[in-house]
């Protein structure tokens, strides 16, 4: 269903300049503002402030889009929303508020994703200006490309904590969103997650994967069971099936040495088992789910499987532990027999934040059991669950599982509060920063309408507290870092005229699906790619409108060989590129491909929906001379944050809010 | 599909995330530890994203703070919005003016039907209160002369927006004696500034970058002074370490502010001295070398002579006078950029948003005594998007 509505379509368009009405800009500019048609993408933190600013500045024809609904945690900054609006579409409520604030404005709102065929180049072409107030780089990249195709100026902005930025993107004149290589969010190799976690985030990632395996849509990339193919592991060791020797393990698992000793004895027998059940299951990533179903999601059995048998199995891969601390198995029965610690539930000091307390081992176990039960009940009703940081049970489950795993591996456990931040990739946000950023957007937007593109600026909002140590003893500290907009990067995949590129990847192992999701959508930011061979046959490889039956085949099986040229195009984005693929079997582990041009590499393990999840060697760009006091370092940090909004990521590791958080908390 | 839309509900509804209007302020005491503190639980959800920024302690301090604000211009409206959303306990807003047509482009709480009818504070409060019903918001129709020691002493912080130079100094002095922090904002076209007096306040601040781990010798020196902010003179702010159980990397330091009162910050001579002692750094080509001090000196000299700040209402006369004043005060051979023409335009909403956002954030920093505050001057040249922290002494 299309959520679409036009408010006051019939209201007369007259420039209301009654006497005494004071307009900030000259009449010519004010007329341009009055007649401008703008498209606001996002009605969240920055969006609410921006809508207000647009109306007060005199903009009268505003289209706004947002696919989100209002949540309680939005209300501390998104001032157009009230608690009674929780659950309603942001776009609709924002439009209503705008209508009330300024009845003569015409607001058109859309409660849906901006990445859609209906919002094509023609749609974008009707606007004088597009304003981004987004929170994820997938949409940013797409809007960027649509504006380039439609040749409409785009004002891009972002905020995180006390920091913010705003710049202008005009085709051929300024740098576009994709000109700067995304500084990818941190991803973790599969074997670290599955076999050898060493940091809390590894356990949290594992716990989220586990959630999907047990209750959601199982993604083969998110296997949680021990990976027997870990190159670091002894290929001959650790091949004992999970379920087989249960009783045995629970008695001998007291010391790791004993376990290993027993393993050595049983190795021959175990080897056969591996070929049977476990090896294949682990590969397919079904073993955990199958086990859960088999035991009817019995939380005790699940616990034993996850924190006893799987850990025992890992211990048997003795090579892994030559230079690492050995994990320890947990026994649910003995933990439950433990006496409650002094800190009982709810006995925290009244000043303390509820979620900031660390749970004891026993509390983790209890929460785990309770959460499994509750989630199973929900699953019985709606079949497939989607992990949501705001769902109490889902969050409890991930916190408890991550902590239990951390306990096994001797990693410090985390509070629910901190786990939520890492698992949900929560970006701290406050009204004042968004208000300032929305003010800066108007600054740039008006300059664009005035045709003074040379006066548009790349603006970075910094904090005095952040800047002072570095800049004192200087007295002056720029709170807004002002610099000129940079010129387009020559080889940018989005805004350059370049239509040719080449990639190195393993053609024998990369599937068509990986090529489509991780390379074309992820790296080249295409929304609906079409691919065909660039030869006389013109064989279609990927059809955006028709699912071909080749998704799981490797590229070689589709006549894509070393040196093959692929014509890739996106009808929606009006974007074409020819990619020459070269076979490579020497790529580092977890690397899906290398772009020969800039040596960009993409992690094979990255979630397919996170296009910026690639590790790029920080491309050192000479910072503009006029970067005022916004150091290149700061800019880089900001870009890291700006692009860091999707899927997984350790907020404290993205080099951004941690410096405040570790001090404040 | 055409949807039929109802106007935005203006009635104040009892929020489902807080049962008692002002209840959260008392939640610290007498809570049965066995019972979940519902208000607190709700507050942690509602304010989650900002608690992750400044911490739960700071949030609690904010939720116990009382603010007095005079002047509901565009900056006042922005500050009010940002602080109410943040969860401040109590705000009293005061104003004497009746809402005018010209307020509609800056104070977004006002509507056309208020123009010529309602006091700016009264009309603003009516619409602002639903932003956060846990905030006790009251409006007073009063003049600046009503801001007396007796009134001020019950508040934790005072904000003055667009009041006269004399009144600002008078109220500033009263606050200084009482030890109450005060902020003062002024908008002149695209130029705007706020000044503050935080004298004597102590702030918990993160360790300075140069003092960070690996540099423990410096961290341990108990009396490291901040690098001087004046030319040659030793600074009077000092840092000392507070006891911290967090380990060396998380040492929280204490900063005690010592700064001159508002009469100095608004004094033409002091501004001139400070400006000459702090030349504008060379900027790259293409960007203006806009100088806050010379611009401020111009505005203050004008205000001293006319008894009011330059305004859009008198734009032609004021522009002439500003040019006169500038010719007098500009030292010979001085090439700093001064923009009298941008001081007499109408106030732009985005100027208010940027200044009001920064001011509100600083008010929160001061109320929570957390982090490094901006003192004692912030100057904004909005049409160049240049905002900077300055220091007048």
UniProtKB/TrEMBL annotation, chain A:
The active site is at 191 (glycyl thioester intermediate). The keyword Cytoplasm does not apply. It is found in: Nucleus. Residues 218-242, 606-626 are annotated as: Disordered. Residues 25-452 form the THIF-type NAD/FAD binding fold domain. Residues 218-233 have a biased composition (Acidic residues). Keywords: ATP-binding, Metal-binding, Nucleotide-binding, Nucleus, Transferase, Ubl conjugation pathway, Zinc. One of its GO terms (cellular component) is cytoplasm. Zn(2+) binds at residues 176, 179, 492, 495. InterPro entries: ThiF/MoeB/HesA (IPR045886), ThiF_NAD_FAD-bd (IPR000594), UAE_UbL_dom (IPR028077), Ub-E1_IAD_1 (IPR042449), Ub_act_enz_dom_a_sf (IPR023318), Uba2 (IPR030661), UBA_E1_SCCH (IPR019572), Ubiquitin-activating_enz (IPR035985). Pathway: Protein modification; protein sumoylation. GO terms for biological process: protein sumoylation. GO terms for molecular function: ATP binding; metal ion binding; SUMO activating enzyme activity; transferase activity. Pfam families: ThiF (PF00899), UAE_UbL (PF14732), UBA_E1_SCCH (PF10585). Its main location: nucleus. Belongs to the ubiquitin-activating E1 family. This is SUMO-activating enzyme subunit. It comes from Ramazzottius varieornatus. The gene is RvY_08846-1.
UniProtKB/TrEMBL annotation, chain B:
This is THIF-type NAD/FAD binding fold domain-containing protein. Residues 16-36, 212-238 are annotated as: Disordered. SUPFAM superfamilies: Activating enzymes of the ubiquitin-like proteins. The gene is RvY_14054-1. GO terms for molecular function: SUMO activating enzyme activity. Belongs to the ubiquitin-activating E1 family. Residues 47-374 form the THIF-type NAD/FAD binding fold domain. One of its GO terms (cellular component) is cytoplasm. Residues 212-231 have a biased composition (Polar residues). It comes from the Eukaryota. InterPro entries: ThiF/MoeB/HesA, ThiF_NAD_FAD-bd, Ubiquitin-activating_enz. One of its GO terms (biological process) is protein sumoylation.
């Amino acid at each position: 269903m299309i959520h679409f509505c036009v408010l006051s379509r019939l209201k007369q368009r007259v420039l209301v300049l009654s006497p005494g009405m004071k307009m900030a800009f000259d009449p010519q500019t004010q007329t341009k503002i009055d007649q401008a048609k703008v498209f606001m993408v996002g009605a969240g933190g920055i969006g609410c402030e921006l809508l207000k600013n647009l109306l007060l500045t005199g903009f009268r024809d505003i289209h706004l889009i947002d696919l989100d609904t209002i949540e309680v945690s939005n209300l501390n900054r998104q001032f157009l929303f009230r608690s009674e609006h929780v659950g309603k579409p942001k776009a609709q409520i924002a439009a209503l508020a705008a209508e009330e604030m300024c009845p003569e404005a015409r607001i058109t709102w859309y409660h849906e994703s901006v990445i859609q065929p209906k919002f094509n180049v023609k749609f974008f072409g009707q606007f004088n200006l597009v304003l981004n107030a987004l929170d994820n780089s997938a949409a940013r990249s797409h809007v960027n490309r649509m504006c380039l195709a439609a040749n409409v100026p785009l004002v891009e902005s972002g905020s995180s904590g006390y920091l913010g930025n705003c710049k202008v993107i005009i085709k051929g004149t300024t740098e576009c969103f994709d000109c700067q290589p995304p500084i990818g969010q941190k991803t973790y190799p599969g074997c670290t997650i599955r076999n050898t976690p060493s940091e809390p985030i590894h356990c949290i990632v594992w716990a989220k994967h586990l959630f999907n395996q047990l209750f959601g849509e199982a993604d083969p990339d998110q296997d949680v069971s021990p990976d027997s193919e870990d190159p670091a592991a002894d290929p001959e060791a650790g091949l004992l099936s999970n379920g087989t020797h249960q009783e045995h393990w629970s008695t001998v698992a007291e010391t790791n040495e004993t376990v290993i000793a027993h393993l050595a004895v049983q190795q021959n027998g175990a080897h056969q088992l591996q070929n049977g059940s476990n090896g294949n299951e682990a590969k397919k990533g079904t073993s955990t789910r199958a086990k859960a179903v088999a035991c009817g999601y019995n939380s005790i059995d699940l616990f034993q499987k996850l924190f006893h048998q799987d850990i025992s199995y890992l211990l048997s891969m003795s090579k892994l532990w030559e230079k690492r601390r050995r994990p320890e198995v947990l026994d649910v029965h003995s933990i439950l027999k433990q006496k409650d610690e002094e800190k009982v539930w709810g006995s925290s000091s009244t000043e303390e934040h509820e979620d900031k307390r660390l749970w004891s081992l026993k509390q983790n176990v209890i929460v785990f059991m309770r959460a499994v039960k509750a989630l199973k009940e929900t699953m019985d009703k709606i079949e497939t669950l989607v992990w949501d940081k705001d769902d109490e049970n889902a969050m409890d489950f991930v916190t408890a599982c991550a902590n239990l795993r951390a306990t096994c591996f001797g990693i410090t456990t985390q509070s629910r509060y901190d786990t939520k931040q890492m698992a949900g990739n929560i970006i701290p946000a406050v009204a004042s920063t968004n208000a300032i950023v929305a003010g800066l957007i108007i600054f740039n937007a008006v300059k664009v309408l005035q045709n003074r593109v040379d006066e548009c600026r790349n603006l970075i909002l910094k904090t005095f507290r952040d800047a002072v140590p570095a800049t004192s003893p200087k007295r002056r500290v720029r709170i807004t870092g002002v610099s000129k907009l940079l010129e387009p990067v020559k080889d940018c995949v989005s805004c350059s005229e370049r239509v040719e590129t080449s990639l190195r990847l393993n053609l024998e192992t990369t599937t068509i699906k990986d090529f489509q999701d991780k390379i074309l959508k992820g790296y080249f930011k295409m929304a609906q790619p079409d691919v065909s061979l660039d030869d006389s046959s013109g064989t279609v490889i990927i059809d955006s409108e028709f699912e071909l039956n080749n998704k799981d085949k490797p590229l070689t099986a589709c006549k894509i060989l070393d040196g093959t040229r692929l014509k890739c195009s996106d009808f929606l984005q009006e974007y074409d590129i020819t990619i020459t693929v070269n076979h490579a079997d020497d790529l580092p582990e977890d690397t899906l491909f290398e772009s020969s041009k800039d040596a960009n590499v993409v992690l094979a393990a990255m979630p397919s929906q996170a296009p910026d999840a690639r590790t790029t060697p920080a491309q050192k760009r000479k910072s503009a001379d006029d970067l005022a006091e916004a150091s290149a370092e700061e800019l880089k940090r900001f870009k890291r944050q700006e692009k860091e909004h999707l899927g997984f990521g350790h907020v404290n590791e993205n080099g951004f809010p941690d410096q405040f958080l570790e001090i404040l908390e | 599909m055409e949807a039929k839309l109802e106007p935005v509900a203006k009635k104040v509804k009892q929020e489902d995330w807080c049962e008692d209007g002002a209840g959260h302020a008392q939640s610290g005491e007498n809570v049965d530890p066995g019972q979940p503190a519902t208000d607190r639980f709700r507050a942690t959800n509602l304010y989650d994203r900002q608690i992750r920024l400044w911490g739960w302690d700071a949030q609690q301090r904010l939720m116990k703070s009382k603010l007095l604000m005079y002047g509901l211009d565009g900056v006042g409206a922005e500050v009010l919005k940002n602080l109410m959303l943040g969860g401040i306990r109590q705000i009293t807003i005061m104003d004497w003016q009746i809402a005018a047509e010209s307020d509609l482009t800056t104070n977004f709480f006002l509507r056309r039907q208020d123009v010529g009818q309602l006091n700016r504070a009264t009309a603003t409060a009516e619409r602002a209160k639903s932003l956060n019903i846990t905030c006790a918001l009251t409006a007073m129709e009063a003049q600046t002369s009503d801001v007396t020691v007796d009134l001020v002493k019950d508040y934790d912080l005072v904000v003055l927006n667009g009041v006269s130079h004399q009144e600002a100094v008078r109220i500033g002095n009263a606050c200084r004696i009482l030890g109450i922090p005060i902020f003062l904002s002024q908008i002149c076209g695209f130029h705007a500034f706020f000044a503050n007096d935080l004298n004597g306040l102590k702030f918990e601040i993160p360790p300075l970058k140069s003092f960070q781990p690996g540099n423990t010798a410096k961290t341990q020196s108990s009396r490291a002074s901040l690098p001087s902010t004046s030319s040659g003179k030793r600074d009077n702010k000092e840092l000392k370490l507070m006891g911290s159980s967090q380990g060396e990397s998380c040492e929280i330091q204490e900063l005690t502010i010592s700064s001159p009162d508002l009469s100095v910050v608004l004094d033409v001579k002091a501004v001139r001295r400070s400006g000459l002692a702090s030349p504008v750094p060379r900027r790259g080509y293409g960007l203006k070398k806009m100088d806050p001090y010379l611009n401020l000196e111009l505005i203050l000299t004008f205000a001293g002579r006319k008894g009011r700040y330059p305004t859009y209402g008198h734009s032609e006369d004021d522009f002439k006078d500003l040019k006169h004043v500038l010719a007098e005060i500009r030292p010979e051979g001085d090439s700093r950029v001064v923009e009298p023409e941008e001081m007499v335009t109408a106030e732009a909403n985005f100027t208010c948003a940027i200044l009001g956002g920064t001011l509100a954030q600083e008010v929160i920093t001061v109320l929570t005594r957390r982090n490094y505050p901006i003192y004692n001057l912030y100057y904004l040249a909005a049409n160049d998007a240049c905002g900077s922290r300055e220091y007048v002494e």
